[in-house]
Structure formats: C-alpha cells, structure tokens
Amino acid sequence: QTFATMPIIVLCTFIMRQFTPEIKPQLLWSARTGSGAGDEHLKLGMALDERSIYATNANGVVTAVDKANGQQRWQANTKLDLTTAPGTGDGIVVAGSLYGDIVALNSQNGA
C-alpha cells in the first residue's frame, strides 16, 4: 500500500461496517434457456420487455421466458449460428448470425 491509497481503503472499510441491508433478496424462479455459446467464447446477453426475457444461443435457438414465473413462453430454432444477444422492441425480437443474417421474430409467439 502506498500512502495515497490508504485513506480510501480506511474510508471504504468504515462505510462497509455501517451498511445494514434493508431487504433480503430471494430467488423467485430460475430457468434454462439452452446450451449457451458452447466453445465459441461468446457472451450472449438477454433482452426484456414488459412480459418476457429473451435469450439466444449459438445453435440458433431463441427462447422467451415469462418474467413473472420463469415459464417458457416459446422457443424458436432459427437454424442460424447466432452470435448476438437478442434485441426487442415494437413487438419483435431480433438477433444476428455469424454470417451477417438478421432474424426477426414475433415477440408474442416466436413466429
């Protein structure tokens, strides 16, 4: 430690000792949405709207999960090598492929 960093460490330690959590997070549900990115080393994220959480995987599968209860709403196999996280808005879910294809699905049913 240098002298310059010591006051910051002391201040952080002081603040952390005074922190009292007001809520206790609890797991409401969990869901599997597919096999992920495999060996591609991709970090595919998720998107959400008012009702669903959307996920993609490298095998081309797009999954919609109900935010309220974790139940799968729909799943669509695009048959593309997806390399992007989904995006959503205006009633559609979009994702991009390894070769530049863009797929757009209906957010209500995956069609």
Your description of this structure?
A hairpin with a 2-residue loop joins strand 5 (87-89) and strand 6. This protein is 12% helix and 30% strand. It has 111 residues and is mostly beta strands. Strands 1-2-3-4 form a four-stranded antiparallel beta sheet, with no helix packed on it. The protein has one helix at 6-18; strands at residues 46-48, 52-56, 61-66, 72-77, 87-89, 92-96, 102-106. The chain has one helix and seven strands; from the N terminus they run H-E-E-E-E-E-E-E. The chain is elongated.
Helix and strand layout, with pairings?
Blueprint: H1 6-18, E1 46-48, E2 52-56, E3 61-66, E4 72-77, E5 87-89, E6 92-96, E7 102-106
Antiparallel strand pairs: 1-2, 2-3, 3-4, 5-6, 6-7
Features:
about 110 residues, mainly beta, elongated, single chain
**What order do the SSEs take from the amino end to the carboxyl end, as H and E?**
HEEEEEEE
Instruction: Please give the share of residues in helix.
Output: 10-25%
Mean pLDDT comes to 83
Quaternary: single chain
Query: Into which percentage range does the β-strand content fall?
Result: 25-35%
Determine the structural class based on helices, strands and strand pairing: mainly beta
Report the biggest beta sheet as strand number plus sense, adding barrel if it closes: 4 strands, antiparallel
Count of discrete alpha- or pi-helical segments spanning 4 or more residues: 1
Q: Detail the poorly predicted runs.
A: none
How far from one another are the termini? 58 Å
